[in-house]
Amino acid sequence: MKLTPRKFSEPTPYNPSGNLQVNDVSKPLIWDMNRYINGRSLLKRHRQGTTIKAFTDLKRHNLCDEDYKHFCNEQITQGSLLGFASAEDFTVPGVPRPTEDFLTRKLWDVANSDPYGHRGDLTTITEGVYQHGGEAHQVRDEFFDLPQEDKDKIVEFLKTLGVF
Ligand code: HEM
User: Fold this and answer.
1) For 63-100, how does the pLDDT look when each residue is reduced to its tens digit (9 = 90+)?
2) Is the CB–ligand 1 distance for residue 64 below 6 Å?
3) How many angstroms is it from 152 CA to the middle of ligand 1?
4) Where are the domains of the chain?
5) Which of 91, 103, 108 is nearest to 33 (CA)?
6) pTM, whole model, 2 decimals?
7) How many CB atoms sit inside 10 A of residue 56's CB?
8) Helix and strand counts by DSSP (H, E) for the chain
């Protein structure tokens, strides 16, 4: 995911009303996402901005089916506006979604963001993958059909994706 510019600020010019605005502060907090930490930059810099390996498609998917029901029993509608700002104040107004639709988690910090799942009730990365039914059922099966060594390699790779 390419981001331009590479400086993140808070408040941002895009904050909806009812939230802190740029004019409310004498100086916004500005964070250079390519800041060098211990001699290395965490993200890849490009001409105007920065590239984040987010490991997500930023889309919603239904991971629920007859075989894997872990993600089937949610009660709260996703995507509703539960705050105080009115819908017109948002750049993209929220649209209520079916209860089984979840935004694909970014895996950029999966090494140190356990426990997993939106309820935080999955302990390991393998357990997280195990519960992928619905739209991810086939990919889930392909993972578990791999020889143990290949499964281990994928999990070891995911364990390198940490934000420390
Ligand atoms: C083998 C390939 C895949 C791996 C290794 C994988 C891994 C993971 C892991 C570890 C999580 C939990 C992350 C966390 O809670 O912090 C997760 C969540 C999720 N994944 Fe996957 N995934 C894979 C394929 C897919 C596919 C193909 C889809 C969609 C079609 C998908 C959709 C999702 C969604 C929607 C969540 C969020 C669930 C929630 O909010 O509880 N994943 N994935």
Assistant:
1) 999 999 999 978 776 666 666 667 677 777 667 778 88
2) no
3) 17
4) 2-51, 60-158
5) 108
6) 0.82
7) 13
8) 3, 9
